[in-house]
Design goal:
By secondary structure, the protein is an alpha/beta fold. It contains 25 helices and 19 strands.
């Protein structure tokens, strides 16, 4: 067996021998316990060899599912993933400084969500601590996720507990997450590439994972039964409202419709059998007519209930369902809903965009942050505004902040506001920042990738604590807002090179939607027709004009299309747009011409060089590009894949002045969005 294996380190050879010896013992005496490994690990090793037919001498690389297969696993848990995200982010903040990453897998062991330090992405991906990794026991052998799924228990698989010698450096601590029927729904995992040799070092990690798995499970339960009577029970009345141990939901007939895992274990032990579908009076010896005396208006010390068959007392809080419609019944959970008008009008029938809008519509009133990506002009702000206009916050402000358009010296005071006289040039009466202006509504952070690194930490605090500290102030001001962000940049790449904080990225990445470019949309012709008919002056297209519009590749996307049609509307006669009414650049463009590939942006964007002196090579590359584009800054920025304001900053940094300026002064940045 060893001869056929690849060369291995001594520790790996020793581990394989230990597995083989253990499995030999297991084959003879399945419940024998040898020294060094607990029964869970030894039983898993035996399953790997005897049931899964895995070879302990193999050195298998991590299995990462392709994107299409991963999305299938994620789609099955879409609503749950949005609910779980906050719990994952909170747990990650607790353990990230200790070198851990956080994974959430489905019940099959496939990682459907991941939080980790993207600076170490290659190492995490190679080890399988990454999105799409398959950690099921039949595939990966003994491991935290797979063995948790097989046993249903929270556990730590530490270093050489792993079956596959490839995973010996890892430590993985997991806990199961169950649905409201008691079925395994997901597995929460914290893992690290390296750790102390003692397994006891993971005790705190195990307690944290179990606690946050319960938090996620309870949050999912409460969302699932938000239209039902929900009973919260706890042995300690002080924690009944904030952190109940046991959760039950009742259907319209007063029968148990769902429970969290702790309630299931408690009540099934007391009832000696399943409790789903049983009447409340059978389970808690509490008549349904008495339920009203357990609502919040009664003192907690008068809300005690006896657990049948025991002497134990539990305190209970009964929460009634919200007011229902005239029918007296709640709507079916899976009932189809019409799209809000503001969202429906964004698409003229493109299938990919339609799917995006349908998914986004489910989140209009969700507290999760939304990250919108896509090319410049593709409609990211329109989508953000449509989400706001379709939500319960629509009567409150929608504040759009272009992080690339605000001068770097003013962005702090513009965002956070300032007190009178807090800095040179500050307004005498002080100023509310844009974040406070969005209180109660939506804050839209456009071009978030261009936010200076120094301010990203302050923004992270706003998002995490929901409070803002104006410049010069000593006390923060609470804010209630929904945050959406947009960028055309690759934020993951920015995190890797240190230009964007990974914790801020994960905070913004609650839900991610990529807006397709116009050239990939299937509804271009219908969209053109819709825009021609919009506004007070409708126009028609001649056949030749239509052909030219359809042949263009639209590098400026929807924004360019709107500008072109507005230009044509102003020039055309008798309401009919002819080819000569279209801008000249459409005539010059070749129909088959592919969009220009973005060049690599100058190395001066790295944080360590952001304020340093530019090298001659960097300056020369930027000069060459600008001269090649005839000093057209917009086109140069498009080729680099950055905003015009960012390019103007680079020009100032390199002391590059445009010859197109008659006064010889350096071209200033544009005052508003692209």
């Amino acid at each position: 067996m060893f001869e056929s294996a690849t060369p291995m380190q001594a520790t790996q050879r020793s581990h394989i021998e230990q597995v083989l010896q253990s499995v030999g013992l297991e084959a003879d005496a399945r419940h024998a316990v040898g020294p060094g490994k607990d029964q869970l690990i030894r039983a898993s090793w035996a399953r790997c060899v005897l049931e899964h037919r895995l070879d302990p001498a193999r050195m298998q690389e991590a299995i990462i599912l392709p994107g299409a297969q991963l999305r299938e696993h994620q789609d099955r848990l879409e609503a749950f993933l949005h609910i779980a995200r906050h719990g994952l982010e909170t747990l990650y903040r607790q353990v990230a400084g200790l070198g851990y990453c956080v994974l959430l897998t489905d019940a099959r062991g496939v990682t459907v969500d991941f939080l980790g330090d993207l600076l170490f992405e290659p190492s995490l991906r190679k080890a399988g601590l990454y999105l799409g990794a398959d950690w099921s026991e039949p595939v990966a052998g003994t491991c935290g996720v797979g063995t948790c799924i097989a046993t249903g228990q929270a556990l730590t698989v530490h270093l050489d507990d792993h079956f596959d010698a490839t995973h010996i450096p890892l430590t993985c601590t997991t806990a199961p997450v169950h649905d409201d029927q008691g079925r395994l729904l997901a597995v929460l995992d914290v893992s690290a590439l390296t750790s102390p040799s003692s397994k006891d070092s993971q005790h705190l990690a195990l307690q944290l994972v179990k606690m946050y798995a319960a938090h996620v499970e309870n949050a999912n339960f409460l969302h699932r039964f938000r239209e039902h009577w929900v009973l919260r029970l706890s042995s300690a009345p002080q924690f009944l409202d904030v952190n109940p141990e046991y959760l039950l939901a009742l259907d319209d007939d007063g029968r148990i419709a769902g429970h969290n895992r702790q309630a299931q274990l408690l009540l099934e032990r007391a009832q000696r059998g399943p409790v789903l579908g049983r009447a409340l009076a059978e389970v808690l010896e509490l008549p349904l007519r008495d339920l009203d005396r357990f609502v919040a208006r009664h003192p907690v010390d008068r809300r005690a209930v006896a657990l049948p068959g025991t002497r134990d007392m539990l305190f209970m809080l009964a929460s009634p369902p919200p007011m229902r419609g005239s029918s007296g019944r709640a709507a079916e959970p899976g009932a189809a809903r019409a799209l809000p008008p503001a969202l429906a009008e964004l698409s003229a029938g493109d299938p990919a965009l339609d799917r995006l809008i349908e998914r986004a519509a489910r989140l209009v009133n969700s507290p999760v942050s939304i990250l919108l990506t896509g090319e410049t002009g593709s409609g990211k702000e329109r989508l953000a505004r449509a989400l706001h206009d379709s939500s319960e916050r629509r009567r409150r402000p929608f504040v759009a902040v272009n992080c690339a358009a605000i001068p770097e010296t003013l962005i702090e005071s513009e965002l956070f506001g300032h007190l009178p006289g807090s800095f040179s040039g500050a307004a005498s009466r002080g100023k509310r920042g844009l974040i406070q202006e969005a209180d109660g509504g939506t804050l839209f952070l456009d071009e978030i990738g261009d936010m200076p690194l120094a301010l990203q930490g302050r923004l992270l605090r706003v998002l995490a604590e929901r409070e803002v500290l104006p410049v010069g102030a000593t006390r923060p001001v609470a804010v209630n807002l929904r945050v959406m962000a947009a960028t055309h940049c690759d934020l993951v790449a920015a995190v890797r090179r240190g230009a964007f904080r990974d914790d801020l990225y994960y905070r913004l990445h609650g839900a991610h939607f990529h807006v397709p470019p116009l050239r990939e949309r299937k509804d271009l012709e219908l969209l053109i027709e819709r825009l021609c008919c919009a506004g007070p002056r409708a126009v028609r297209l001649s056949a030749a004009a239509r052909e030219r519009l359809l042949a263009h590749d639209w590098p400026g996307n929807v924004r360019e299309l709107c500008n072109v049609l507005e230009y044509a509307r102003s020039l055309c006669a008798d309401g009919v747009v002819a080819p000569e009414d279209l801008p000249e650049h459409l005539e010059r463009a070749h129909p088959a011409e592919a969009p220009l590939a973005p060049r690599q942006q100058p190395a001066a964007t790295a944080p360590s060089q952001a304020r340093g002196a530019a090298t001659a090579r960097q300056r020369g590359e930027l000069l060459e590009l600008l001269r090649g584009q005839g000093w057209n800054v917009s086109e140069a920025a498009r080729r680099l894949g950055v905003s015009r304001m960012t390019l103007y900053r680079w020009m100032r940094r390199h002391d590059i002045r445009s010859p197109n300026r008659s006064d010889g002064a350096q071209a200033p940045g544009p005052p508003g969005p692209l």
